[in-house]
Amino acid sequence: MNRKKIIEIMFSNIKYTQEEKDIIMQLEEAKMQWEIAKKYFAVVDDPKLVDYAIYSEDQCKAKYIYFLLEARRKGVTIDASYMIEELDSINA
Q1: Which residues contact 49 (CB under 8 A, 6 or more apart)?
Q2: Which of 28, 37, 35, 33 has the alpha carbon at shortest distance from 6?
Q3: Buried-most residue among 1, 29, 33, 70 (CB within 10 A)?
């Protein structure tokens, strides 16, 4: 199950404001970018690219933390417990 499908299910079952949806989507995008940056760092071996990979990972991490703090500040919470039945029906 991919993350975008999970977010679609989440948005269809719970009422979020557009601002909350935007924060959740930005948070998810920042998390994916951070994961990609970590994977990139793990495979580079040229010293110049290692420096770039470190910078990129730090930048992605900072962006993720920013949106995480923004979500907390605005009281955005995600309760995924309701998704169990929905995901079971998709995977069946």
Answers
A1: none
A2: 28
A3: 33
Residue 40: left if φ>0, alpha if ψ -120 to 50, beta else—which one? Answer: alpha
pLDDT digits (tens, 9 = 90+) for 27-72: 889 999 999 999 999 999 998 899 999 999 999 999 999 999 999 9
| Total residue count of the chain as it appears in this document | 92
Residue 76: enclosing H or E segment and its boundaries? Answer: none
- The pTM assigned to this predicted structure is 0.71
3-state class (DSSP) for residue 40: helix
Largest CA distance in the chain: 48
Block residue for tokens 């770039």? 52
Closest CA to 12 of 71, 74, 68, 83: 83
Query: What residue has token string 């999970």?
Result: 6
